[in-house]
UniProtKB/TrEMBL annotation:
GO CC annotation terms, alphabetical: cell envelope
Localization, UniProt: Cell envelope
Family from the record: Belongs to the bacterial solute-binding protein 1 family.
Chief location bin: other
Ranges of biased composition (kind: Basic and acidic residues): 453-467
Keywords on record: Signal, Transport
Record-given protein name: Extracellular solute-binding protein
Chain segments annotated as coiled-coil in the UniProt record: none
Keyword Disulfide bond attached: no
Length: 485
């Protein structure tokens, strides 16, 4: 759906205040007269909340039209990658919002405008952007820069310093590997009542061998599917090591594994009781910025909440690349479409949302992302956020190209994994035997999914007729969590 928003005189008046207080360094402004700009984003409302209103205060002469991506996810679409490309081709937006999975593809296909020349022309400062971000985007662009991301989502090792001191365990440090994290977790006691005992490590969702192995593999850059060859590779020494680490950790009883998948609905108090790290009963977890907000809300909401000293360390890391991280995502990579007729207005938009002025304003509100422009997201609730900036994002993207995998594949693949890992747990199969079976049977499922996807692409009418089949597609739908007071 195409939606147009024209800002009123009141917004123009507000813009005067912002312009007066704006900082230098945004470079030469090329937009002088009324112009239009078509921007692709998730939705119109969200766009204006995040970017549009602030940009319009600075540039009321630019009329913005938002191309919503919501249509991609409606109806009978199963090939979201192609649906996204079709929407771009149909709407011809000036600004595209991409992510880790498709930025490189659009850049290599010649669909994006190169930004290096514009940066040099306007002397646009990039030195204070999150180290490694520019290098990563350039590498994905074949050596040239085609996009910028105003924010990113990263992880850190959160730890309860009080528990470490109580049990005489050395505090976590920057650059810990998964092996070190699991070894540290096993140093905490495993006895005690289920409702009061302490755990060495855990997450806010239910842990399993499969999802723990996936987390470790992601950090270490392992991929079980090569999206270029569409081949599954799991029966290797590296993958055996990953699964052995996950199995040993869960068998140690030091890892929190909530029954019935964890919290499934209830009161606010019941929700927080299910969050063991928040409640001071878990020594370590992998956290994101929103976890800090969660802890603050618990302290303010619960009458008898017992605070603890929270620490953060950069990690986890791949032991082969201790200064980098793959656990960073750029969900909003903005780029200018090649041959855009509104390139000047598009570049002004790019400069603004990736600049100091925008970062200063948005850093005041906490969400799950931090500003790529450094020096603004400094602390939250007394906690230094520098930890999230210490590791450089790895140019080796574990998710690159994975958008090519048909979505139907995953729902049919996971039951194979669960079945084989259950056999390993029951000690009726070795890890090597289980991985060999998963690899072989998974390849059959992948081949069929790819073949079916090609058939649907060549026969869209037939796909539409058969689109109402639900239970047999193998798709997994996620439930919603309801919290009531």
């Amino acid at each position: 759906m195409r939606m147009k928003f024209v800002h009123k005189a009141a917004l123009f008046a507000m813009s005067c205040l912002l312009v007066v207080g704006c900082s230098a360094g945004s470079g030469k402004e090329t937009v002088k007269e009324t112009s239009s700009l078509k921007v692709m984003f998730y939705s119109e409302d969200w766009f204006y909340q995040q970017y549009g209103d602030l940009f319009a205060m600075k540039h009321p002469e630019v009329e913005i039209e938002v191309v919503s991506q919501q249509s991609i996810y409606n109806g009978q679409n199963t090939d979201y990658v192609q649906a996204f490309k079709d929407l771009v081709e149909k709407e011809q937006p000036d600004i595209l919002m991409l992510d880790n999975s498709n930025y490189g593809t659009f850049a290599s296909d010649g669909k994006l405008m190169e930004l290096d020349t514009l940066i040099a022309r306007d002397k646009y400062p990039t030195e204070t952007i999150y180290p490694g971000l520019m290098d990563l985007l350039k590498e994905e662009g074949g050596g040239k820069l085609y996009g910028l991301s105003p924010s990113f989502s990263g992880t850190a090792i959160f730890y309860n310093a009080d528990l470490f001191n109580k049990y005489g365990v050395e505090l976590p440090h920057d650059g810990m590997t998964w092996q070190e994290i699991m070894d540290t977790a096993r140093r905490f006691p495993t006895d005690g009542d289920e409702k009061t005992r302490v755990y060495g490590y855990g997450m806010e969702w239910s842990m399993s061998v499969s999802n723990m192995a996936d987390s470790i593999a992601s950090t270490e850059g392992l991929r079980y599917i090569n999206p270029d060859t569409m081949k599954i590779t799991l029966n290797t020494d590296s993958w055996k090591k990953v699964y052995q680490l996950a199995i040993d950790a869960l068998d140690s009883s030091a890892i929190y594994v909530p029954k019935d998948g964890g919290f499934g609905g209830g009161t606010m108090e019941e929700y927080y009781e299910s969050q063991l790290f928040v409640m001071g009963r878990m020594a370590m977890t992998i956290g994101r910025p929103y976890n800090l907000q969660n802890i603050k809300q618990a302290r303010e909401s619960l009458k008898d909440y017992k605070s603890f000293e929270l620490g953060m360390a950069a990690g986890p890391v791949n032991p082969a690349e201790p200064d980098t991280t793959r656990d960073v995502s750029f969900n909003s990579i903005f780029a200018i479409r090649a041959n855009s007729p509104n390139a000047d207005a598009a570049w002004e938009f790019m400069k603004f949302i990736n600049g100091d002025e925008y970062a200063k304003i948005k850093s005041r509100s906490m969400n799950n992302e931090l500003m790529s422009r450094m020096g603004y997201s400094k602390e939250y609730d007394g906690h230094n956020l520098e930890t999230f900036y210490k590791l450089k994002p790895s140019a080796s993207n574990s998710y690159s190209g994975m958008e090519k995998i048909p979505s139907e594949f995953y729902g049919q693949y996971q039951p194979i994994v669960d079945r084989e890992l259950a056999l390993v747990k029951d000690k009726t199969k070795s890890i090597s035997e289980a991985l060999a079976t998963i690899e072989a049977e998974g390849q059959v499922v992948l081949d069929k999914a790819v073949k079916d996807a090609e058939a649907k692409k060549n026969n869209p009418a037939e796909d539409k007729d058969s689109g109402e089949v639900g239970a047999d597609t193998g798709e997994v739908s996620s439930g919603t969590v309801t919290i009531t007071n």
